[in-house]
Amino acid sequence: MLIKVFPIKLKDGKQAEAEAVIEEYAPKGPGAEAGTLSFRVYRDLTKPDYLLFVEHFASQDAYDAHTGSAVYKELIAGRFSDLVVDFVEINHELLVAL
Questions:
Q1: Where does the ABM domain lie (predicted)?
Q2: How far apart are CA 74 and CA 76, in angstroms?
Q3: What span, in angstroms and rounded, lies between the C-alpha atoms of 31 and 38?
């Protein structure tokens, strides 16, 4: 299993617009992909213009298919990326799950 975590700083005042793009993307992208096991996006209640993505994939190939899809390119690499100031991509390996 491949786990990706992305803390994302958005441009000032773009929280609602970013959330709308993610809500449109989720069922079309990750929700339709067999290799995407979990796709969760969190907002910070104390920090505006910030999102945290936590994603679980069956494999590196599944992640590559996810980021190579047309809907990803249109909504995430396209519209969403225009709203981002900075992000970090962090790879994780599952240690314990309940």
A1: 2-94
A2: 6
A3: 9
User: Residue 90: CB partners within 8 Å, gap ≥ 6?
Assistant: 4, 5, 6, 7
pLDDT score of 94 more than 90:
no
- Per domain, the residue ranges of the chain are 2-91
Report field, pTM of the whole predicted structure over 0.85: yes
- CA 21, 40, 49: angle at the middle one, nearest 5? 55
Q: What is the pLDDT of residues 32-79, one digit of tens each?
A: 999 999 999 999 999 999 999 999 999 999 999 999 999 999 999 999
